[in-house]
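Problem: given the chain below (190 residues), write out its structure.
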Amino acid sequence: MHGATVDLMNAGTDAKLSEASDVNGSYHFFALPPGTYSVTVSKEGFATLRRDGIVLRVGDRIHLEFELRVGDVSQSIEVTAAAPLLQATRGTASFVVEQKKVVSLPLDGRNFVPLIALSPGVNLPPGSLLPRINGSRPRVSEYIYDGISVLQPEPGQVAFYPIVDAIEEFRVETNSFSANTAVPTAASSW
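Solution.
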């Protein structure tokens, strides 16, 4: 619906963003931090629609459709229980390591790399800091921190290791990599 106001609120931080839908009824919010969100869609002459409990994880791209019903300003519809969102905009197989695991699992040397091995299909040989993702060679993985590669010129050598306590969550992509992945054989990001 053209000209509807779409309000997005992060339930954890109360940060709010607002966007107007375009002529196709589309709206976009970019570079959102992981968290739980609520979306409210309103337009004069239609009942306001609100959807709560939308969980956004690192690297997610989700598509939400809303259908406004004719009504007056005092009417509103609230959806509080929703089915898990289908990732229809990307074909990757991935695994998300949440902050709870990052801060609670024991690590030798405060290095996040052993946590990559929590993902199915990932092997971390003893004494190695270079994981093998679904049988790939250990030096072909791409490490992306907030969208930027942190590899040194020699393949597989990570130039920057974030502080473990500062990692909210990270995603390990194990196959079907997107076109914007710099190294097509394996990718992981935090």
